[in-house]
Amino acid sequence: MAINILMLTFFSMIAAYRAKGDLWVITFVVSVYTMLVLLFWCLNASKMVPEDSKAKKTYRVRIWSLGALLNIMFSYKVFTILPLAMAFIIWVAMASLAILTTFYAFFVCKDDNKDNESFCEEFNECC
């Protein structure tokens, strides 16, 4: 985990340096960096909490909110460099689809099948 944060910090510093004083780009880099650090922290903290606790649900909301906000921000960056019609599709349709899909997976879908856990364990062992 520490190496991830170090690499994120390093590359964020490089991006902010390459912005050459452009306040909007520096603000974007700093805000994305902050949200990613918070997202990593929430992901790690949520692993320590029992599955059926209220805190776990709170962490799910935080994780989903940070992910949705990051998705919107990155989609907006793509929006600024594409033609208007394509940018609209990217920013609205694709970002909305990703946000709604993760909302469904986090809060609506109640998967009682434990095969997913065994698949994840097998995947983690081999990769």
Automatic annotation (TrEMBL):
Protein's name according to its UniProt entry: Uncharacterized protein
Lineage: Eukaryota, Viridiplantae, Streptophyta, Embryophyta, Tracheophyta
Keywords for the protein's UniProt record, in alphabetical order: Membrane, Transmembrane, Transmembrane helix
Residue ranges crossing the lipid bilayer per the database entry: 23-43, 63-82, 88-109
PANTHER family: OS05G0181300 PROTEIN
Superkingdom per UniProt: Eukaryota
